[in-house]
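Q: I'm writing a short explainer about GNAT family N-acetyltransferase for a general audience and would like to include a description of its predicted shape. Could you first generate the structure from this sequence?
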Amino acid sequence: MHGLRLKLSQTKEYDALTDLFMKNGLEFSKEEPVRTDVVKCWKITHGEEQFLAAGLALAKRQGEFIIDGIAVEPEYRKMKIGKIILNKAIEEVKTLGGNRIFLVARAPEFFRKRGFVTVSREDAPTFFECATCEQYNATCYPEVMRLDIH
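A: Of course. Here's the predicted structure. Afterward I'll give you a sentence or two in plain language.
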């Protein structure tokens, strides 16, 4: 990946991903137990030190696949690794027989470029906690999005 010795791998290090998500402004809490609905997690690491450059958690709630968290460290954002890790999750959903993925996007344009469309909260399962977050509609204006997989 781009000559930087980046490595994509599956991980069970949910705490490390939670740290990455919180560091990048996503609403996660270390006090919350690890969710049992996590299907798989991936990470992209850099160099000998295995610096965590990106991470994604795929979950399944109410019968629907969701991207429970995705983050890329700022210095890696123009290297297409967000696209790479998202594609890995999409391929996994296909392998598992899923036909769509939901997420809450703080950066909807990134997801729109990859085929996701904005849907109303009423058209999505009730698995997002945004409305209870103090950032909601104050400093964060997320969109509920869905990707139909063909």
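A: For your explainer, you could say: The domain at 6-148 is CATH 3.40.630.30 (Aminopeptidase).
Q: Perfect, that's easy to follow.
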